[in-house]
Amino acid sequence: MKAFSIIQPWAWLIVNGHKDVENRKWKPWNPGLHFRGEVLIHAGKKFNEDALAFVRGNFPQIVLPETFDRGGIVGKAVIIDAVTEHESPWFFGPYAFVLTRGEPLPFLPCKGALGFFTPTFDPPEPAPAPTAAVGPAQGSLL
Fold it and tell me: Which of 50, 104, 102 lies closest to 72, judged by CA?
């Protein structure tokens, strides 16, 4: 499944069903504007403090988390259209993907990329091998 990087807090708002469009400043010939279907939502490593202030000021009814996962997959949604106009209060243009069925998923760290991409996941670091309990050496006076 393809993934799409979105800065926080926008990614959280999408996967939790609050934000129904994702704005882009892409060129009209960008092939990504033709994408439709289910997509993983990747939260980039950066955080937009101005966006957080905007949400708190304009949507006080949304209970936001104290921290936001960054640098990995946070959920999924379905892209049903790309538009140049929309009645959503989240639309700023010039283009926006219209989203539906946002759903949070367990956080899965991975690198992001520009546009739509196929995520690659690094295997988790192996746990260190257990060490045997070391007691006094044989013949020790202890």
Answer: 104
Quote the longest CA-to-CA distance of the chain. Answer: 84
DSSP code string of the chain: --EEEEEETHHHHHHTTS--EEEE---TT-GGGG--EEEEEEEEEEE-HHHHHHHHHH-TTS---SS---SEEEEEEEEEEEES----TT---SEEEEEEEEEEEEEEE----SSEE----PPPPPPPPPPPP--PPTT---
The pLDDT of 27-34, averaged and rounded, is 79
Where are the domains positioned within the chain? Answer: 3-112
Backbone dihedral angles phi then psi of residue 63, each to the nearest 5 degrees: -85, 110
| Domain at 3-112, CATH class | mainly beta
**Token pair 């033709």 is at which residue?**
34
Q: Assign 121 a pLDDT band (cuts: 50, 70, 90).
A: confident
Least confident of 26-30, 61-65, 69-73, 120-124: 120-124
